[in-house]
Specification:
11-stranded mixed β-sheet; Jelly Rolls; single chain
Length: about 575
């Protein structure tokens, strides 16, 4: 929610980058406006594939091009004919970074249309095994060209980042490194069916992809006939369709140097991919995580020259040119501590020194928030007589998803969901690492959904209390689980980071109590003294707080769920606390 009541922005990357650039070079952070409004390829090439299909690519050369250069390869379905449109909110697919910045620093930049898109031949089938093989063959073909040194690095954000993960898993001999920025490793779990719940984003994303191919800035129109949206609907379980299109299980085989760069603010889509990608790859690796408020901000940050000057080019110069750069001495893990202007360092993720604190769900009231129950989070375990919390749905007061309106007429996301809130914190509290919610619940239905939000709730003001207005807040992180998808994957689950098999549905028996282990996405956030930690529970979400990553609220969602929090069923939130004394030095 970006309105008056939602509290401060979580976008820190602009400030952090500005500080880093000023400290390192005495300059100022360059923004998206540094990219030229016109980006015309120096040449367009045709890359032959082993099955006879030819893939088209735009090549951007250094201005004094002669001899051989290392190559950065970007591959997506967004077509190079759209290169050069401004990296603004209206064009969220501009995820190449500053192309000419790299050609000015001794790189050739190649932007390839994946098969079935743009000017490339073949049929598009959304990151299928053939599209992955194309990456291998394109890298090896580029390496043999007279203008290439034979050292290839992956580049780009989102789809381009996912392509890089696949590059690494294909093991082409001439791939020297990858730097996936803001890119997930598992579309099923991170986009199409978060927690097993069908999402709206695949449909809106794919319509955008079709549009940019049919109506490009330059070049001939291209109809993408493949229906990804329909395929996603047909495959509601993690079956062979999705397994072919995920790289998560192949990551341990990736051995090239990997610089995984995530964005805390992209918790709904890419964040966990960058965390998991870093954890699972087996080659030399480093992790960097920024704040970032939303989709558009993440694109704008990646388009800034300051970002590449400070972070990415030192990585490429080391991997592709053999130079001893600042990347070599940089810590293994750097991450923004949201709620502050600091970047902290660690040797691993999660950082060492974390202590898990158990906060039990219990009845309230806390008097700090108007919600359906105003429950509390308590360090004391509940007793045997604690009554459960019952929520019926849909709620008559919902006006936009699960969001209703406050007395001032404005959207109020907390008012018509369940909340469990701590007392005001008696000290600054750093929550850093993966988070787990253990929930005991039953339903009147054979299935139900759990949408979890962890928020930083600001202190109440006297005026708000008098007007029955809820306090300002910031959503810190989220979690999702469809009850029938509760089966855990023992191979890939980590402490406090459950992973689900999603292999089959396990319907509920109405009225029976079940234990659910819900993964709440990792974070790093400072809850300041006097603020409160708030857990929100609902069975849906809203465009007010979650656009564009909303989920469908279907006709089957009519009934009642019961949340248990007694001695026999101690529902609890396990949060990682990093003592201030164990912090790495701020960067």
């Amino acid at each position: 929610m970006q309105g008056k009541r939602n509290g401060r922005s979580r976008s820190l990357v602009g400030m952090l980058l500005a500080v880093a650039v000023l400290l390192s070079s005495g300059g100022s952070l360059a923004g998206a406006q540094d990219i030229a409004p016109r980006l015309i390829p120096d040449r367009i090439i045709s890359i032959p594939m082993s099955d006879g299909v030819k893939l088209a690519a735009a090549v951007y050369l250094p201005s004094d091009a002669h001899g051989k250069y290392p190559v950065l390869l970007a591959a997506s379905a967004y077509r190079f004919d759209n290169d050069g449109v401004p990296a603004m909110a209206i064009y969220p697919f501009m995820e190449l970074g500053p192309v000419r910045y790299y050609t000015q620093h001794g790189y050739i930049y190649v932007h390839m249309d994946v098969r079935g898109t743009g000017r490339s031949g073949g049929t598009y089938t959304y990151q299928s095994r053939r599209e992955q093989r194309d990456l291998y063959e394109a890298i090896e073909w580029i390496a043999k060209q007279p203008w290439s040194t034979g050292k290839i690095g992956g580049v780009g954000q989102s789809y381009y980042a996912r392509a890089q993960w696949f590059m690494g898993a294909q093991h082409p001999p001439h791939l020297a490194c990858i730097a996936p920025y803001d890119g997930n490793v598992d579309t099923y779990h991170a986009s199409a069916y978060t927690g097993g719940i069908p999402g709206d984003y695949p449909d809106s994303w794919f319509e955008g992809l079709r549009s940019m191919n049919l109506d490009p800035r330059n070049g001939p129109p291209r109809v993408v006939a493949y229906d990804y949206t329909l395929q996603a609907l047909r495959h509601n379980l993690y079956d062979d369709f999705w397994k072919e299109r995920t790289v998560a299980e192949q990551l341990p085989t990736v051995k090239v140097p990997t610089f995984s760069i995530g964005v805390w603010g992209k918790v709904d889509l890419h964040l966990n991919g960058n965390i998991v990608g870093f954890q699972r790859v087996s080659g030399p690796k480093k992790l960097l995580v920024f704040g970032g408020a939303n989709v558009e901000q993440a694109v704008a940050d990646y388009s800034s020259i300051g970002f590449h000057e400070t972070y990415l080019r030192p990585f490429y110069d080391w991997c592709l040119k053999g130079e001893q750069t600042s990347y070599v001495s940089a810590p293994s893990v750097r991450y923004a501590l949201t709620g502050t202007d600091k970047i902290l360092i660690a040797d691993a993720w999660p950082p060492a020194g974390i202590n898990y604190e158990t906060l039990f769900l219990n009845n309230g009231p806390t008097g700090s928030v108007v919600s359906l129950n105003d429950g509390k989070l308590d360090t004391a375990a509940p007793d045997a007589s604690t009554a459960p919390t019952v929520v019926t749905y849909p709620n008559a007061g919902w006006t936009n998803g699960v969001v209703g309106r406050g007395p001032d007429g404005r959207p109020d996301p907390a008012r018509r969901v369940l909340t469990f809130t701590t007392p005001p914190l008696d000290r600054d509290t750093q929550v850093v690492g993966p988070i787990e919610l253990i929930l005991y619940a039953s339903s009147s239905n054979t299935d139900t959904d759990f949408f979890v939000k962890l928020s930083d709730q600001a202190p109440n003001t006297d005026d708000d209390l008098k007007a029955s207005l809820n306090p300002r807040y910031t959503i810190v992180t989220k979690g999702w689980l469809r009850a029938s998808h509760r089966a855990l994957d023992s191979k890939w689950s980590l402490p406090h980071a459950p992973w689900y098999t999603d292999a089959k549905e396990q319907p509920l028996h109405p009225g029976q109590v079940y234990k659910f282990d819900i993964a709440v996405m990792p974070t790093a956030h400072l809850f300041k003294k006097g603020s409160r930690i708030r857990l929100e529970l609902a069975n849906g979400d809203s465009a007010v707080t979650d656009a564009p990553f909303t989920h469908r609220y279907g006709p089957r969602k009519v009934g009642a769920d019961t949340i248990y929090h007694d001695a026999q069923h101690p529902s609890e939130l396990l949060i990682p606390i990093l003592p201030a004394a164990t912090n790495g030095a701020a960067q």
